[in-house]
Amino acid sequence: xxxxxxxxxxxxxxxxxxxxxxxxxxxxxxxxxxxxxxxxxxxxxxxxxxxxxxxxxxxxxxxxxxxxxxxxxxxxxxxxxxxxxxxxxxxxxxxxxxxxxxxxxxxxxxxxxxxxxxxxxxxxxxxxxxxxxxxxxxxxxxxxxxxxxxxxxxxxxxxxxxxxxxxxxxxxxxxxxxxxxxxxxxxxxxxxxxxxxxxxxxxxxxxxxxxxxxxxxxxxxxxxxxxxxxxxxxxxxxxxxxxxxxxxxxxxxxxxxxxxxxxxxxxxxxxxxxxxxxxxxxxxxxxxxxxxxxxxxxxxxxxxxxxxxxxxxxxxxxxxxxxxxxxxxxxxxxxxxxxxxxxxxxxxxxxxxxxxxxxxxxxxxxxxxxxxxxxxxxxxxxxxxxxxxxxxxxxxxxxxxxxxxxxxxxxxxxxxxxxxxxxxxxxxxxx
Length: 431
Known about the structure:
Region (Disordered): 127-149
Helix content: 40-55%
CATH class of the largest domain: Alpha Beta
GO molecular function, one term: fatty acid synthase activity
Domain Malonyl-CoA:ACP transacylase (MAT): 82-416
Shape: globular
Low-confidence stretches: 68-73, 133-144, 148-162
Number of helices: 18
CATH superfamily of the largest domain: Malonyl-Coenzyme A Acyl Carrier Protein, domain 2
InterPro entries: Ac_transferase_dom_sf, Acyl_transferase_dom, Acyl_Trfase/lysoPLipase, Malonyl_transacylase_ACP-bd, PKS_NRPS_Biosynth_Enz
GO biological process, one term: DIM/DIP cell wall layer assembly
CATH architecture of the largest domain: 3-Layer(aba) Sandwich
């Protein structure tokens, strides 16, 4: 049985408790339950597999959320969509959403059709190798869109980047298409972001959703960018669990540089594979934890410089506009300006410039009552975020047992409690 979202609202806290009691009793007795709760300020929502489970969760839940000027914290929440880069994708990703949410399936199919027209390759065969709806072999390999049992040898093999879904020319377009399709689906359900933030190629998703680029142009550009990078010599990236000042003295003259400032104790390095391996050895000797990332290239490092000019030329051929939704820049760590977003040179150097993601996250923390929603697989970005308030996810990581459908419905439940007026007619297709 698929999970469903059960929600209720009321004008005040006492009224809410009565509404919750009435709904729980209706669920337990099999009475008809309203499918479209009213948009009142005191709210409660749960996700359950059946009415009995929903009744139990409703009775166990604490006070419902409120919104508006009289609610806790005052004012409406600032919803922020978070778009991840590559490295955590896997076959069957977002498969439950693809099977059970027509809007998501239509949006993803549209993106994949545009990519097939641009590249001649149908990436469905990589993302869903067994074909949609095939138990054990189709998307997710299990009911509800859970990840298939991972190939442990491949996950821990440093050659994992040779897997097809980790090849740059496949990974980047798939990351863009999946997250953009999910963002469009959430917007259609009434979740309007106040701001966006993207990591590496995720900033392109943010830019497209913000209206900087048209979807067809953005998808063609991402495919072109990936092909350009794929033609470069191999590179490697290393996630180091330490601050930059602890890492920099150990880089030596190996051509390894900082690719991302992700947090006070997380720095990403990039460079030639052998050089990265030597640096990893020196870090291990210093008892500094690090791990190789599943990529065959040194993104956001000087090794990307050869593709800057051809990428700039491709960008100059498409219209670029100031963003209609604000997002902080990976390059500067501050809110991107209209001039930067519309400048082909900005996006060209974005690829070879270190990411100032920790600073960008600081801009998100400055928003009133931020609620972040991660649209990529796993918890990479929510794990980096330090703001107070909900940090919601939508697609499980490869080792998780929870399905993407359950995670997404749970995120919608929390957004409803935070004051988002969801489109309940659209939600009926999910639940």
